[in-house]
Design brief:
The chain is an alpha+beta fold. The chain has 4 domains: 6-96, DNA Primase, Chain A; 103-245, DNA primase, catalytic core, N-terminal domain (DNA primase DNAg catalytic core, N-terminal domain), CATH 3.90.980.10; 251-448, Dna Topoisomerase Vi A Subunit, Chain: A, domain 2, CATH 3.40.1360; 477-600. It is 51% helix and 10% strand. The protein contains 26 helices and 17 strands. It has a 6-stranded mixed beta sheet with strand order 12-14-13-15-16-17, with helices on both faces. The protein has a 5-stranded antiparallel beta sheet with strand order 1-2-3-4-5. β9 (203-209) and β10 form a beta hairpin. The radius of gyration is 27 Å and the shape is globular. Bound molecules: zinc ion. Zinc ion binds at residues 39, 41-42, 49, 60, 62-63, 65.
């Protein structure tokens, strides 16, 4: 997607009544909550084509075609997603934003199309290589993980050969735009020798496929020990952020899982790409994963649009526990129903320490764990409570931690129900929870604070971040806007203008994030720990992602911040001046009047 803003797509989805759109082509009759008719995709005499207006979804029991209103138009009329969206927008009176007519945006769209085409070509190269003699190491790796042909094809898995020019040569032979290939991080320039070299080498390559079969980027895993001459021996290398690859807004496996998520009404969230593939192979095709980072609010939003509830099935280790808590916190705030998968064998033996892949291979009935997954907050609460069973101080700490989670719930009725459930479960008075939650809410939402370390050294969530509590209060708009700009264009952080901008930031939270971002951290990851949700939303909205001249925007922002700084100075000076007048200190009055005038001049 991406060519049309997500909000516009949501609006089309909301306004285009699936029953009337499909009703133009199929005679539909009401059947309970749904509508039925003769399938337009296969010849039939009795109706097995169903439309659910509640879910915004159609499904044929005869030929198994299924999808939403966009898919219907795409499939029936052979349109691309964009064309289908334009058709539907026109029908239901949604205006697709003007940006189409802006030549700069048109250029950005052209660039995006070029990048997607390069990614497609590269996928083809990696898939061909995996099947060739050069792909033996990749095939051996997949064999070792028992990943079969069906999944290899569904996920378009490929292999990047060990030689340094395989892909660069291939792209060159195809007359591809090599500059664009550099921008999407597939190849890099050779500084001295000239020419290009491959960034992914001797790695199993998983493309991140968008619904509609576009390839946004790649995640590449080492299959052997790090090559000696390689400066990047990391187990995984991922595509860098680019106009087509924004990892905070993508989920691995979404294209492959989307239909199952709709049909089953749930999404299963795991941590790793290979967990996703193993889960799909085991039949849990509603499984997706964030792309090697902490879950983001955008990803939660993405899930909400596709399905009714999310089941968390993260690794059972310490990091997995911390990630589970963070995901739980985001989902509670976004009011997405969330459950946590059980990890026990039929005989009741708990298997907390394992990841989904090893549970699947260990013969655990993962289907039952998912089906019987408990409410997320209840599960998390019981887990910590059990571990703290003998210590009053640990239980106090657990209560505080839970209260911070509960404080994410904005709806007062729901908050009351949850507090009452928790109090019954833990055997404490409901007020103990509501009061702690209110305290936590006053201190800022959960998202602003690191989780408590939990009661047990071996199994608790990740250790407490030693950083002091961030200051509270609203985030200054201009400064937040500046961070939103560099979030979309991290390369700006290396410029002198960015140094100037940093010196003008007044909000400590933003200053901290800004310097962490300059040290290479992702703002998408930092934000949930430091900012209130409304600010996170602005920061990560991607408003500048397609801006053709981000450096000019940076200049303008610096100007704005300078003006704001001068204004603050003027106000302070005027206050001092008033005091000096009160006292009658003529010398001081003269000095201050001059300074006020000088400062004013700078603002104007
Ligand atoms: Zn059919």
């Amino acid at each position: 997607m991406g060519l049309i803003p997500d909000e516009t797509i949501s609006e089309i989805r909301a306004r285009a009544d699936i029953v009337s759109v499909i009703g133009q082509h199929v005679q539909l009759k009401r059947a309970g909550r749904n509508w039925k008719g003769l399938c337009p995709f296969h010849g039939e005499k009795s109706p097995s084509f169903n439309v659910s207006p509640d879910k915004g979804f159609f499904y044929c029991f005869g030929c198994h075609k299924k999808g939403d209103v966009f898919t219907f138009v795409m499939e029936l009329q052979g349109k691309s997603f964009l064309e289908a969206a334009e058709t539907l927008a026109a029908q239901c009176g949604v205006v697709i934003p003007e940006t189409t007519h802006n030549p700069e945006v048109a250029r950005a769209r052209g660039e995006r199309a070029t990048m997607l085409a390069i990614n497609k070509l590269a996928t083809q190269f990696f898939v061909e290589t995996l099947a060739s003699p050069r792909g033996a190491a990749g095939r051996a790796y997949l064999d070792s993980r028992a990943i079969g042909g069906e999944q290899r094809a569904a996920f378009q898995l490929g292999f990047a050969p060990a030689d340094w020019h395989g892909l660069a040569d291939y792209l060159q032979a195809k007359r591809a735009d090599l500059e664009a290939a550099v921008k999407v991080g597939l190849i890099a320039r050779q500084p001295k020798a000239g020419g290009f070299y491959d960034r992914f080498r001797e790695r199993l390559v998983c493309p991140i496929i968008l619904p509609g079969n576009e390839v946004a980027g790649f995640s590449a895993r080492l299959v052997a020990d790090a090559p000696k001459d390689s400066p990047v021996g990391a187990k995984y290398i991922n595509s860098p952020e680019s106009p087509v690859y924004k990892k905070s807004r993508l989920l691995f496996g979404l294209a492959q899982a989307r239909d199952a998520m709709r049909i089953k009404g749930r999404a299963v969230l795991v941590e790793g790409n290979f967990d996703v593939i193993s889960m799909h192979q085991a039949g849990f095709t509603e499984t997706v994963a964030p792309l090697g980072t902490a879950l983001t609010p955008e990803q939660v939003e993405l899930l909400r649009r596709q399905t009714n509830e999310v089941i968390l099935f993260y690794d059972g280790d310490r990091a997995g526990r911390a990630a589970t808590r963070a995901a739980l916190s985001l989902m509670l705030a976004a009011e997405v129903p969330v459950r946590i998968a059980w990890r026990s064998r039929g005989d009741g033996v708990r298997l907390e320490g394992q990841d989904p892949d090893s549970l699947l291979r260990g013969g655990v009935d993962v289907g039952a764990s998912l089906d019987h997954a408990r409410d997320g907050l209840a599960h998390y609460a019981m887990l910590l409570w059990d571990e703290a069973r003998d210590s009053a101080s640990q239980r106090g700490a657990v209560l505080e931690d839970l209260a911070r989670l509960v404080a994410n719930i904005k709806n007062p009725n729901r908050l009351e129900v949850v507090a009452s459930d928790l109090s019954t479960m833990l055997g404490v008075r409901p007020e103990a929870i509501t009061r702690a939650a209110a305290r936590a809410a006053r201190a800022g939402s959960d998202a602003q604070r690191p989780p408590h370390s939990g009661p047990s050294e071996s199994a608790g969530p990740a250790p407490v971040d030693p950083a002091p509590r961030p200051p509270q209060g609203p985030v200054p708009q201009h400064e937040l806007d500046l961070l939103a700009l560099v979030a979309d264009h991290p390369t700006l952080l290396a410029t002198p203008q960015a140094n100037r901008a940093f010196s003008l930031l007044t909000d400590d939270r933003l200053r901290d994030m800004y310097s962490a971002a300059r040290a290479g951290a992702s703002l998408a990851v930092l934000a949930p720990d430091r900012l209130p949700p409304a600010a996170i939303k602005i920061l990560l909205a991607g408003s500048y992602a397609q801006h053709p001249k981000p450096d000019a925007v940076l200049d303008a922002k610096v100007k704005e911040l300078e003006v704001a700084a001068y204004k603050r100075k003027t106000i302070a000076l005027e206050r001092q001046l008033a005091q000096a007048k009160n006292i009658g200190d003529t010398e001081e009055i003269r000095r201050l009047v001059l300074e006020v005038m000088n400062t004013r001049k700078q603002v104007d």
